Automatic annotation (TrEMBL):
<dbReference type="Pfam" id="PF08240">
    <property type="entry name" value="ADH_N"/>
</dbReference>
<feature type="domain" description="Alcohol dehydrogenase-like C-terminal">
    <location>
        <begin position="181"/>
        <end position="249"/>
    </location>
</feature>
<dbReference type="GO" id="GO:0042573">
    <property type="term" value="P:retinoic acid metabolic process"/>
</dbReference>
<dbReference type="InterPro" id="IPR011032">
    <property type="entry name" value="GroES-like_sf"/>
</dbReference>
<keyword id="KW-0520">NAD</keyword>
<dbReference type="InterPro" id="IPR013149">
    <property type="entry name" value="ADH-like_C"/>
</dbReference>
<comment type="similarity">
    <text>Belongs to the zinc-containing alcohol dehydrogenase family.</text>
</comment>
<dbReference type="Pfam" id="PF00107">
    <property type="entry name" value="ADH_zinc_N"/>
</dbReference>
<feature type="domain" description="Alcohol dehydrogenase-like N-terminal">
    <location>
        <begin position="13"/>
        <end position="140"/>
    </location>
</feature>
<dbReference type="GO" id="GO:0008270">
    <property type="term" value="F:zinc ion binding"/>
</dbReference>
<dbReference type="InterPro" id="IPR036291">
    <property type="entry name" value="NAD(P)-bd_dom_sf"/>
</dbReference>
<dbReference type="InterPro" id="IPR013154">
    <property type="entry name" value="ADH-like_N"/>
</dbReference>
<keyword id="KW-0560">Oxidoreductase</keyword>
<keyword id="KW-0479">Metal-binding</keyword>
<dbReference type="InterPro" id="IPR002328">
    <property type="entry name" value="ADH_Zn_CS"/>
</dbReference>
<protein>
    <submittedName>
        <fullName>Alcohol dehydrogenase 7</fullName>
    </submittedName>
</protein>
<dbReference type="GO" id="GO:0004745">
    <property type="term" value="F:all-trans-retinol dehydrogenase (NAD+) activity"/>
</dbReference>
Amino acid sequence: FSIEEIEVAPPKAKEIRIKILATGICRTDDHVIKGLMVSKFPVILGHEATGVVESIGEGVTSVKPGDKVIPLFLAQCRECDICLNPDGNLCVKTDLTGRGVLDDGTTRFSCKGKTVYHFFNTSTFTEYTVVNEFSVAKIDDAAPPEKVCLIGCGFSTGYGAAMKTAKVTPGSTCAVFGLGGVGLSVIMGCKSAGASRIIGIDLNKDKFTKAKTVGATDCISPKDSTKPISEVLSEMTGNTVGYSFEVIGH
């Protein structure tokens, strides 16, 4: 990484320029640096943020300057075949393949006269960024930026794993391995889905208090038993764990 002064062009039609208020650092950003994800360079990373609309391009109707928003890296244009399919979840206009440009094939970033590429159509490690209109969600003006920025990736990943992917059912028992930010979000999703028992598992017992605050009914550490953790869970629940989530982060 390097800190550079860049130029951010005005938004074109159906685009929004955002002033970033807060941004999180995700493991995905680290994947790019380590070469584990394809990306063009130089690039402005970041995809987990909160910002305020600074200016809008022609034809933008969903937001106005001054609105607080969260950029979306898995947005929906609501027009392509995938978006119109109720089972679709990967809009053709999302950029998970490292194109590094917006819809017209160009970028809005430059540094010392050279092109700088976008990341995930968001690029939030900057004071200002430009995104497609459909790549933002308007949020409450009172929402604290440093907290709700996590909704852009970390929270939605965990919460969605429970609510949308696993589809946790009311009265069920869930086991959540890993009580970091995403793991806590899984717990919140399980609680919202109506799970009756949510067991958090982590080596670090310092995380147990927060886990119970957001919905865990039990917390255990593998260090406290000589038995495999699977046996411990079986004995605790009578083999009734219906949903298991691995959120360790490795």
